């Protein structure tokens, strides 16, 4: 990381640049659609009632509308129709990652951009789900099902309706996280699509283990995590404060559902946010997240973490559970069939660090971290 | 407000439109510069040591650099050189409201835009303050001194340096607030400059008492408050959580400086943020602010509050102290002389509501609010 | 306050002593009952349904049992049957302040103690309310209806049932507050009853405006506030954290019930607790309170505040609303008739300070506080 | 647990009783001293400067006085001279667990009580440490060094000095925790000393793995943890809110000292408190703790947890790190020599549960918890 500046906090900063990759997706000549933000995810679940109990009764997402075929959910500060669609199906998977674009005209750009890449593209003037108008769905070059839309029904933003908020209120959809075998290839493609890189994890050989990228002015609208893919790693919702996240844990304990807690709560190194990872009844991973930082300036510094920095994924050095690295949700093609999964092409973050396990350092200067009290060192 | 939709929370929403005004600033044919966000304020103080004690020792802003002539301060998550410049002078005033633009080329646009309006424009390749390069300052048509810049020195973002954060850490510059005699005229001009309106306060005669407008995806980068102007109403910094704001109050009490607390803490109706207003040693007003909502979608609904809604400025119906309506800081012209102040052209919010005083309603349906326990009803 | 030690925070500390009074209640030769803590209050309300809506639907107290004649409510961490009884009646008033004693045998002591004072005493083996066994009620020498009991039905402590907790959960009954014309007389009587003084407010003439006293190891189980009495000033419930109290304000705003907020939220000088005062549908005052300090040591220092210290009742110097000084609830005799109210015998705190109004000081050294921005100075 | 009542939260409650033990310490005929609360711990450290850096610069305990021989530390709300004495020595150990008693006369009772048991007893009229007067130290029947004192220098309670508080301020000493081979024997002895049992962990064979007991009205002043002993498991300090504990973690990350975090943060099942365990430079364990519940009623229900309940030690089911079960600090005899350590006599909690590892249950009804995402299930 000789071209980067070491900060006093232990990570590196540098100016954003196109990510080098030896296996690039071609850059289309057509301009990409102007994306505003991640907007919703359509999730296939195997037992709609069980999922409703989790997303509505436990997580307290707001039901915009529901039927036997689908439940449309939103966060308390959302004014568009939904942030999540739950749809019953035979195989738990993600049907689409949906982004809102800046204007109706961006849909034509999306069609041209992906068509030039030879991707399968489908457009429906009346939308693919309730509440959405003209929309384009594609199977992107990385194998993910992506939707772009502008037209959407407005619903009441319940930000001021504190009487309806629970102690763990989810206020915003924050981001998606995708698993892909070749992170530089995927990240470079997303840069072509207009995403800005904010943070990444690398090793001394410039192996990139994960990268975070944004359209709105937060750390990310999506991230690329290295692993067998294409798969969906998680969908993240924001709370206002940290105690809201702790309450969700407390409530899961009270309901004797604490085994839905997979990792955390903790403080991320990457993003500086406070986090919690849950697993829904089908194993789909949900992050609850709060308090990352503003990234909207054009020259926002890119933060690079050393994969051997024990605080990169948990600032407190707490262990990353293996399933967090290995498990993820299948994604569907536009016919609703699961996309085949390809293996990781580069080295695995878990293999080189095994969580917070003593193959990483807390203080880079230390020869020997054997004195530490972490679980990874004790197993 | 017959053209607007009443929400269940008591305010109205509508689609954004150009604000009607019978006294518009002409719309230039030149395009406006693309503004990223409010970036810093240069504040003239009469006793630099006393101001340093307040901004650095009490509010814990980070000193980027300082001399006898100026102190450059930033928030903990900032990576540009400064968010505040304190400069000693004979008259307490605001020397400039500075915005960051999207690229160096925007400065040419700023020159053309304001020149067409006949405004005084000054450009310095080496900047007007430390840490800033090429910059343009103007006296805008509303009488405010405004700076635009792109080039700026990067400094370390201290977001991860919790060891340096106090319990009241100010993490971001959030917004400015300006006092102007004619709010629709000012707001319409800001729309021409590329700002988006997010909220306003009106009465049944469409008198506009205040309006909030944004470039970044928060409720505002600046607001226009009706009153004698041009003056600076306040500069606002964000904390992560509400307890950080309460701590600032607690600390002021411990230092026997509680008389610097002018209003709050409380919950705004407008913006839904938690707030506190302080006055610095010269009387410059500072807001501490947290947890408004995302506004970045192109069709973000505009929120309109009834000036007679007792919860519009404090969701808990607590009184607005008269000085908050009447007092504000002078602003300087580009020669450093105070701009003359013109009187409010429309009706005064204080005159029609007198804070939370019983001339307003808590429940619109109530004929008589005389049973309430608010200070305004008891004086 | 020449015999007291001035602290760096601006108040005084001294060793606890019997409070001097020129009009004492005789000290009985019989020992007082050993009181454990304040336990419940029986409150007469004029509209039981309206009160239920407030205490249960707004404040989220837990219903232990209810009928047309009474609603029994408890806090989330309580294991005895109730902390509040709401009972319908023609006049809003307090029927009893109830204390739990250390053992069944303490009831005999209570009978002897009050009988020696010539007070009216009534004992019921089956209790005066549901859930309580053997109990003694008295009209005490200050005119207040007081109950002592040991036997009580146990109910489930819902501390771990986070799924049932709202964001403003009330976890404990903390204290009562009584209005009495002669504070030293009342305080000295309470000392004879075994209470320990923790804090008081005095002036330079040793006029005592209010005193706080405890049995359990918090700042108080009850306080004596100077004014027309006997009356009930407030009943206070504890939350875990400050944000829980802010949420209650937010929720009241959402329900368009913000006029139930009388004073605060704020930080007390006395007790150092974070507070909020509400008024129920009958005007009974309720405090929500959190984070005072441990007082259980036998030599816990008594804190004395100067009545002219502007931060004594609000550490941030925010104004005390006049109704908070003047309004309070009637109390009943054992026949259920309102006790007549006698006027304040000493000077009134409001008269000498008028809230946070400039007749008080923020910094004792200041000749002139006229520069401050407080509402009191602006009206 | 057939004699206990199962609650809706999954644990059991029962009336307090003397703990049965087949190997009791004889009950003295002399009455025990009346203990007020745990008051301070004297800790021997091998590098006083390193320990000062941890306790003062990282944990922000207040220095009452210090020399080359000792550092006297207190919490922000303490008014007695110290809660911790750090003293340099060749072997890291605990020199004394000190309790405050109700009056000077209690010291005579302490001498008689322990003398009757044949324990070594030492009394010093001028105290064993700075700031303490007449004091008695004993080697108790369980092998622990215990001090009793009443006389102590008062220092300023800094509760109101928010300007001195950091975001992780430790406000009170909360409790000690001791490791002992035979928990029922130790608990029964503590009952004879006047302690009240509040919670314990048992299995279906009535094996007691740990017990919590109190003098003040919190869940404990000390606890007995089963294991090789006598050893000191931890000393615990309270914060006001949960975010204060999270801040301590964040700060440790910033200082690259996250390897001092051993376990947590998390929510205890036992005590319902929010917690964090740290290890100091010598490996002494420190708990940071907030928000347990009031226990001061004479019939406070005893809570019993099933050792197989996965949420007993962490309500969120997160794993207990092995070192937390196995490591602890030596304790000294009155000559300053380490007490020999005897092995656990009963079954080991770690052996029967291995943390949160799938040998325990989240829902008792589940045959198979194999679907859960906990680290214990993945290693």
UniProtKB/TrEMBL annotation, chains A, B, C, D:
Alphabetically ordered keywords of this record: Aromatic hydrocarbons catabolism, Dioxygenase, Iron, Metal-binding, Oxidoreductase
Cofactor(s) needed: Fe(2+)
Highest taxon, organism lineage: Bacteria
EC number: 1.13.11.2
Cited Pfam families: Glyoxalase (PF00903)
Domain VOC: 37-151, 172-291
Protein's UniProt keywords contain Metal-binding: yes
Gene3D superfamilies attached to this UniProt entry: 2,3-Dihydroxybiphenyl 1,2-Dioxygenase, domain 1, homoprotocatechuate 2,3-dioxygenase domains
Family matches, as CDD domains: HPCD_C_class_II
Gene Ontology terms for molecular function: catechol 2,3-dioxygenase activity; ferrous iron binding
NCBIfam families: HpaD
Protein name listed in UniProt: Catechol 23-dioxygenase protein
């Amino acid at each position: 990381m000789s071209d980067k500046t070491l900060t006093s906090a232990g990570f590196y900063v540098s100016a954003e640049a196109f990510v080098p990759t030896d296996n690039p997706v071609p850059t289309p000549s057509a301009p990409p659609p102007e994306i505003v933000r991640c907007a919703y995810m359509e999730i296939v679940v195997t037992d709609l009632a069980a999922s409703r109990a989790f997303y509505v009764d436990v997580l307290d997402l707001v039901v915009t509308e529901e039927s036997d075929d689908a439940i449309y959910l939103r966060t308390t500060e959302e004014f568009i129709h939904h942030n999540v669609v739950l749809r019953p199906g035979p195989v738990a998977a993600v049907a689409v990652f949906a982004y809102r674009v800046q204007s109706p005209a961006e849909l034509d750009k999306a069609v041209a951009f992906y068509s030039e890449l030879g991707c399968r593209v489908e457009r429906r003037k009346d939308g693919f789900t309730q509440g959405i108008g003209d929309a384009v769905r594609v199977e992107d070059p990385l194998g993910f099902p992506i939707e772009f839309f502008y037209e959407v029904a407005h619903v009441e933003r319940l930000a001021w309706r504190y009487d309806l908020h629970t102690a763990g209120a989810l206020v915003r959809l924050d981001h998606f996280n995708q698993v892909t075998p070749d992170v530089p290839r995927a990240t470079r493609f997303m840069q072509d699509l207009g995403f800005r890189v904010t943070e990444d994890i690398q090793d001394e050989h410039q192996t990139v283990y994960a990268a975070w990228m944004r359209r709105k002015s937060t750390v990310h609208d999506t991230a690329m995590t290295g692993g067998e893919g294409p798969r969906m790693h998680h969908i993240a919702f924001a709370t206002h404060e940290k105690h809201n996240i702790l309450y969700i844990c407390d409530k899961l304990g009270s309901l004797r559902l604490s085994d839905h807690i997979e990792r955390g709560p903790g403080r991320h190194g990457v993003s500086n946010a406070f986090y919690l990872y849950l697993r829904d009844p089908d194993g789909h991973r949900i992050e609850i997240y709060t308090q990352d930082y503003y990234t909207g300036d054009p020259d926002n510094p890119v933060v690079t973490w050393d994969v051997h920095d024990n605080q990169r994924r948990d600032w407190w050095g707490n262990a990353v559970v293996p399933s967090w690295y290995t498990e993820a949700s299948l994604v569907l093609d536009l016919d609703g069939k699961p996309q085949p999964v390809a293996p990781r092409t580069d080295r695995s973050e878990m293999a080189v660090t095994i969580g917070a396990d003593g193959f990483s350092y807390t203080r880079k200067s230390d020869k020997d971290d054997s004195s530490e009290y972490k679980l990874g060192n004790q197993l």
